[in-house]
Amino acid sequence: GRLAGYRGVGRDITARVAAEKKAAETTEWLQLAARAAHIGLWERDPETWEFRYSSGWNAQFGYQAGELENSIEAFDRLVHPDDLERIHAFSRAYVADPQGDYQNEFRLKHKDGSWRWVLSRGALITDAATGKKRWLGCHVDITEHRQMEEALRAREEDYRELNATLEERV
User: Fold this and answer.
1) Cα separations (Å) of 112 from 34, 66, 78, 142?
2) How far is residue 59's CA from residue 55's CA, in Å, rounded to a whole number?
3) What residues are paired with 136 via a beta bridge?
4) For the purposes of burial, counting CB atoms within 10 Å of the CB of 95, is it exposed (0-12), middle (13-18) or buried (19 or more)?
5) Angle value at C-alpha 107, between 58 and 51, nearest 5 degrees
6) What CA–CA distance (Å, rounded) separates 69 from 50?
7) Nearest Cα to 88, choosing from 65, 70, 106?
8) Separation of alpha carbons 95 and 46, rounded Å
9) Do residues 141 and 38 lie in contact, with contact meaning Cβ atoms separated by under 8 Å?
């Protein structure tokens, strides 16, 4: 009943620990950059149309992580009715022939009920090992930009009307 010997195996995991640390730092850096740039990240399965959103994406639209279902139906409830069919047609066409990057502008409903203009960009990525396709992208809130464009158009129209009135008087 006495210990007659001891055998052990050791393995140097220094490289693995360093790689894990670097991966964690990179992940944190990307998350901070996305938050600073007000970018919400998304992933969409091109076969099931199931979504996955980053916490930044949820925050853009007033939601907590996990508050929205990861389904096309939940996404569709957020899309402005005037944009819905166009988005579906555009998305189906892109998945059928994913040339270049996906880019589209549309409106999504914020949790507070307001409509936010979104620039959606992404790409269909194929995993070399498995052949599985993933559709990854981001949403950038461009509401202020769109509002400035509309204000500029209104001012241009006012200017044209004023100019026409002045020309009539001359």
Assistant:
1) 22, 17, 12, 17
2) 6
3) 43, 123
4) middle
5) 45
6) 9
7) 106
8) 7
9) yes
Distances (CA, A) of 136 to 12, 14, 102, 115, 159: 36, 33, 10, 23, 43
The DSSP annotation for the chain comes to -------------HHHHHHHHHHHHHHHHHHHHHHHTTEEEEEE-TTT--EEE-HHHHHHTT--TT-S-SSHHHHHHHB-HHHHHHHHHHHHHHHHS--S-EEEEEEEE-TTS-EEEEEEEEEEEE-TTT--EEEEEEEEE-HHHHHHHHHHHHHHHHHHHHHHHHHHH-
pLDDT in tens, 97-151: 988 899 999 999 999 999 999 999 999 998 889 888 999 999 999 998 888 888 8
Separation of CA 6 from chain center? 55
Which token pair is 2? 């006495």
- Take residue 37 and report the two structure tokens written for it: 């740039």
50: left (phi over 0), alpha (psi -120 to 50) or beta: beta
**Each residue of 12-66: pLDDT tens digit?**
889 988 989 998 888 888 878 777 778 889 999 888 888 888 888 888 899 998 8
- Spatial distance between the Cα atoms of 138 and 122, rounded to a whole number of angstroms: 6
